[in-house]
What does this fold into?
Amino acid sequence: MDNNIRSTRWMGQGNCRNFPPAVFFPVDGAGVDRARAICATCPVVNDCLEYALSEHIDHGVWGGCSERERRRIAKRRRIALRVAD
It folds into this structure.
């Protein structure tokens, strides 16, 4: 795993640093859309998503993806690993 992702140094460069944390832990679809819009232009969106996936974070919007989207990505990756074996 890339040490930069695990180190979290990238977090200080995220667009999210300019917003209250609650924005990224929405309770409805409109809130998820707002968080995604912020993530859409973020320079570290990929690092953020990989961090959330590697750390099994199951809440909030990370890397522009909701909890459900991250579960789907993780499942696809697990299936791909099994197929590759």
About this structure: Residues 3-84 form one domain. The chain has one domain: 3-84. The first helix runs from residue 3 to 7.
